[in-house]
Amino acid sequence: MAKATELMGIDNLGDHQGSNSNHRRAFARDVLSVEIEGPNRPQLTVVDLPGIVQSQTKDTTQEDVDMTVEITESYISQPRTICLAVISATNDYANQPILNKVRQFDPKGERTLGIITKPDRLPPGSDTENQFFRLAKNEDIFFELGWHVLKNRSFEEAEFSIQERNSSEMSYFRKSIFGTLPPAHVGVRSLVNRLSRLLFSHVQQALPRLQEELDEALEYNRKELSVMGEPRTSSEECKMFLTRLGLNFYEICKAAVNGHYEGQYFISEGKGSHIQRLALNRRLRAAIQLMNQNFAEEVRLNGHKYHIHGREENASSTKQVDTEPLDEEPSEDDEEVVSRKVAINHNPRPFTKIKRPQKLSRRKAVTWVNDVVIRARGRELLGNFNPLVIAELFWEQSSKWHLFAKAHIDEVSGVCQRFLESVLKDKTPLDKSLTKS
């Protein structure tokens, strides 16, 4: 035991653990396991947890106090654990924190058995003895598993053997009020049998859920193993692994480019994705098609340099059909209609940095065309115009098209890059050897 505690760090001084304090560690998170085997031994596993320390002393620090609570909670919070709430009869049970702790994790007391120790320290016939007697009868703090009473070795009985200790306990219960309790609820021998039966019954109840958890863990491990692939310890195995990995990667990319989404990689994606989130999903061709439509709509609405506003004049009349002046700028309502069309048809995010069309009234537009005609005069007769002026006007109107094309190509490239990164992340295991290579 001394060697074990030394290995667990309990006997080592604090400066051995990297601290300048000379305080001795009182507890450790390590578990000391002792197995006792024999033909008559019960099928039972008992975990002896440290008692919950209320405050620090010269022998225990605040770290030790917190550790006892942490260790206790880590065990009693497990739904397949039977909790033995041990309380001492030398202290009022209302002041012993373990009772509140077990009820915190087992409020109905379905897996908690109360243990009362040191009942021989109670004055016979006193109110305190009667209170603990009612507690042992499960009349005060109720646990479905009930209570059990044990008598510890006294100071004078410290050297007693197991047989002597059991005889002393039996002698006490024959004279005490606790002896009127059912024989299965007093004494260490009946406790062993009671715990064995409780454990067997508890395992029967927990077994179906345990099987489900094992199946889930097995399925998870199988998936992890399938991602890792076959063993690749030799160079030949590594080559075969990389070949299959590259072929799988190629097939997925080919299917995404061709729009064939029947494979498991495409079926396993989240259903119900909004159409505007296709670029974030695995269906690459559908995402590019949507972006192409958005690009075409953006060029149609905002690709021209000048937006000519105004209505045509009636050729048979000197008056204009429209009552507004020809050189009047478009109203705010017209601008709102144009911007609403852009917002409804697509997401203009990639093209926001490109200038919108410059608005011209019909009169200014006629002046612009007239200037281009004068600038483009060639060998034609007076009164005619150079037919190439149409191309020149078109070139100026489409002078921003290359900006839209570049923004569109950059966005498509980003989507393709995210798609490739997603495929690599999903289909390639995080193997350090592959990363290094």
Automatic annotation (TrEMBL):
What Gene Ontology molecular function terms does this protein carry?
A: hydrolase activity
Alphabetically sorted, this entry's keywords are:
GTP-binding, Hydrolase, Nucleotide-binding
Q: Which Pfam families match?
A: Dynamin_M (PF01031), Dynamin_N (PF00350)
Domain Dynamin stalk: start-end pairs: 135-268
- Regions of compositional bias (Acidic residues) in chain numbering: 324-336
Which SUPFAM superfamilies does this one have?
P-loop containing nucleoside triphosphate hydrolases
UniProt domain Dynamin N-terminal: residue ranges: 21-118
Cite the residue spans of the region called Disordered. Answer: 1-22, 310-338
Name of the protein in its database record: P-loop containing nucleoside triphosphate hydrolase protein
What organism does the record attribute this protein to? Aspergillus cavernicola
Ranked from the top, the taxonomy reads: Eukaryota, Fungi, Dikarya, Ascomycota, Pezizomycotina
